[in-house]
Amino acid sequence: xxxxxxxxxxxxxxxxxxxxxxxxVAWGAESQQVVAGYSDGTIRVFSISRTEMELKMHPHAVAxxxxxxxxxGEMILSGGKDGLVAVSSPRTGMxxxxxxxxxxxxxxxxxxxxxxxxxxxxxxxELWLATSxxxxxxxxxxxxxxxxxxxxxxxxxxxxxxxxxxxxxxxSLAAFCPWEPGTLVYVGFGVQKEVLFYSLRKKxxxxxxxxxxxxxSLSLSPAARFMAVGFGERLLRLLSCPSRDAQDYAGHDDxxxxxxxxxxxxxxxxxxxxxxxxxxxxxx
Length: 284
What we know:
The protein has about 280 residues and is mainly beta.
């Protein structure tokens, strides 16, 4: 691995990153744009091929905590430490919508996925979710060309009060399930240490998988029925669904605070305090 380009912003800390989705017509090519969210509330779009900043926007008054592109790359969704979610257009540089439903609790996850236009009896070709640190998840259906954004579901996961033995609460994390359309997966501090599968059609939890500890990171493979879960106990667990077969891996020097499957599903990236590990999935 070698460093091919570097961007620096003086006196600001980069808090979150997202690659622009690759066009369907050029699926074999790597996306050449990334968007970054910073501690001063700004968003910057960088071109990898031209090694320059293409756009700077300032939709937030506080530090960003999550960022994502819409599935077509035409919109940027960003979440702040204050719980506000902004929808901005990288074409115009304008912020077209501010959502305050999670106000007061930092946004931990933003994710977009495609859907059939009339699926869930709402218009739009995209579903997206926002998760905040107070264990709430909102799910939205959007048609960006028509500037419509409709709340589809609102989830709030219970938790006991006054946890003992935890320096800070585990993060609240959610993701759309690639192999079960209309289902989202959630982990976070709660009554039990578990993974929850929630059906947007049935409006209920349809499956639970027990965990040894509270999760600190989560990733679902886009190519196979595998789920990676990281823990504060320096452990990584690979779960096979629906069999629930689990394999545990050590090797981290601290809490596994990030795990990401590659688009191919063949590799998994994990990170702890001072280590970044790349795993290759074999067999299965």
